[in-house]
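Q&A log
Question type: sequence-to-structure
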Amino acid sequence: MPLNNQNLTSKTTLLNVLEALRENINYNLNCVKVATVDTFYPDDLTVSCIVANKRVTGLKDDGNQILQDYPLIYAKVHFLGWGEAGVSYPIMKGMEGLLLFNDRELETWFLTGQGGNLAYDRSHNLSDAIFLCGVRSIPHMIQILTDCFHLFYYNSDFQIKPSEEIINTTSLTANLNESMSINAPVTKVSGNLSVGTGYSGIVPCGTAVLNIQNGIIVGVS
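Response status: OK
Response body:
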């Protein structure tokens, strides 16, 4: 992008030039951008994203900015995970999130999981982006429940509170066998619950007892 002519007055000084150079560097530096998903590629865990804002490519004669859409950004998708625990979720077109551009090339670490010499001489490049899905704008904001840990997917949700767990679902499948017990007081269950093993018997569920016949929960007491 050309240096900002607002800082290059008829009386150009070193300070004007340095300030215009600083603005030019900032305009072209990739750090964090808001984007939406265009396509998810599950085979290699990457996503093509559409950057929400336009980039400035220059100035018109009247001083107005010349704007242009960013090209599709191909980024590595980040899923939350710690040790053997984690959270995964479907990535769909239109989902919002953040693109983080690495200080150096990202390919070597992403493919090998190891540190090492840089394979490419890149810095804050559009090719070295990680996509964090889930950051939302106000029109797409979710309902925030402030009294619990809340997991949800479409019309089903699971709420963990200090004194109770609440399951709201239209369909929930669980695999139970004779050696399995559920040690949590489920105080509210809505929907159709079934088990997938054909087990029949009584299963303690915290303060409740589940009556299972041929893999179907027929009663809760």
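Response note: Helices lie at 14-28, 107-112.
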